[in-house]
Structures are given as structure tokens and as C-alpha cells.
């Protein structure tokens, strides 16, 4: 199996898991979203350290850590990645707990097109007119929702931008997936502990002897496993292809939001999604044509 195929499989499984996460976070909605976020960071750190120990990859982790301290730009990039993905986590948990799963779905639909734009700006990737039209269609969808529905989709934009930035950093920082995720968890751990301490001092902690807290103990595995898969996949395939595969996640979220969580979905929201979907279909078609041409050219050269 080629490295590209492995990357596609890893990324696809990551997005499937992310797609069903609204169901999981709905199980712990008795706890405040930012307290959930703090615990998510703490238990993810514990899970990753145990995983490194059990898989006997501590030496690899030490080597990666030394490498980061030798290359300060990479160190700052990983720290930034840790806090960027934390913003993404917090926004997503808040969205699920406040019945905005469809906005979250919209955000992750926009994300691939945001990844395309970042690839253009930072990685020098160039795109056709059709691909730029795809981005424009998504932009029109956001504008329509802002003026017709009467609310700017803050949740969608934050989720799309933060995850696109995270994907960009993971693409350019040459650190193995296990070490990268562990370091990201460790650098955000102090903020999580400080928040838990603050809650304890103000008697505002809701974590305790209840069912939601029991489910929350699994948040480390739920968080780390798809991140590991995503990190491993992102390093093996182009950023633009990573964005293409990501359509799996928001599609699952979309159906969960409507059919399982019974969120409100009207004609204006449908029109917004139609613009986004049109952009995705157009971009997907252009990528398909591009891949077909490259395959034919490769066969001809052989």
C-alpha cells in the first residue's frame, strides 16, 4: 500500500469519528462546555502519555522534543497548534451543548475551502478559475446566512478557520503524529489546570459522581485517536486533498443534527447549505479531473 493510500485511510477514519462526536458530547452536556474542554485536555494528555509508554515510543517522543527545542520556529508552531485546536474543541463543544450542531456542520463544510485558500496563500498551491468559483459560492452562502437568516455564522467561521490553520501547521511541521499530539496536549495542560482550579475556588465544578462525568473520562481517547489518525494522514497527502476528505465529517454531523438531535432547519438554512454544497461539488469535480489527467500523463510517460 502506498503512503498516499495510507494517508487517505487515516484521514477518512479521523473524519468519521469526528462526524459522530456530537452524539458523544451530547452525553456529557450536564457539565459546562469549558469545564468539559479543560477535562478533555487533561485526559487527552494522560491518554497520550500512557499510549507512548505502552507502545514503547517514549524515546521517539524525547527525540522529537529535543528536535523542537533545537528548532524554535517548530516549537512555537506546535504550541500555536495546541492552542488553535483547543479553540476549535471549545467552540465545537459549546455548539453541541447549545444546539448548534448544524452550524458546526456548516463550519466543517466551509473548512475544506478555507484549507484551499490557506494552501494558496502559504504553500504556493495554485488553483483554476472553477476552484476559485467554488470558494466564491461558499462565501455567498455565508453572506446569505448573515443577511437572510439574521445571524453571522460565528461558530462556523471559527471552526473552519481554526481547523484549517491547524491542518496547515501539521503539514509544515515535521514531527511524528504521536509526539506532536502529546506535545500539543502538554503545552495546553497549564491553562486547563488553571481553569479547573478557578472552578474549585468558586464552587462551580460540576464534574463529580454522575453519569456525565463517567462518560467524560473517555474524552482523552475520543480526542486523541482521531487527532493521531489526522496527523498521520495529513503528513502523507496534500493539504488540498486532506480538505477534500473532510467532507465525510460534516455530512455525518448534518444528518445527526437534523434526524437525531432534531435541530431547526428551515428554507434559508437550506439555501445556505446549497451554496456550500455547490462549491464543494464544483471543487470535487475539478480535483477529479486533475487527478485523472495526472494519472493519464503518468501512464503515458511510462
Automatic annotation (TrEMBL):
Membrane protein topology class: Multi-pass membrane protein
tRNA processing found in the keyword field: no
Protein family per UniProt: Belongs to the EamA transporter family.
Name of one Pfam family that matches: EamA
Domain annotation EamA: ranges: 6-146, 157-284
Transmembrane segments: 7-25, 37-54, 75-94, 106-123, 130-147, 153-169, 181-200, 212-232, 244-261, 267-286
Predominant place of localization: membrane
Keyword annotations of the record: Cell membrane, Membrane, Transmembrane, Transmembrane helix, Transport
Entries under SUPFAM superfamilies matching the protein: Multidrug resistance efflux transporter EmrE
Lineage of the species this protein comes from: Bacteria, Bacillati, Bacillota, Bacilli, Bacillales
Domain of life according to the entry: Bacteria
Compartment list: Cell membrane
Full protein name: EamA family transporter RarD
PANTHER family: ACYL-MALONYL CONDENSING ENZYME-RELATED, SOLUTE CARRIER FAMILY 35 MEMBER G2-RELATED
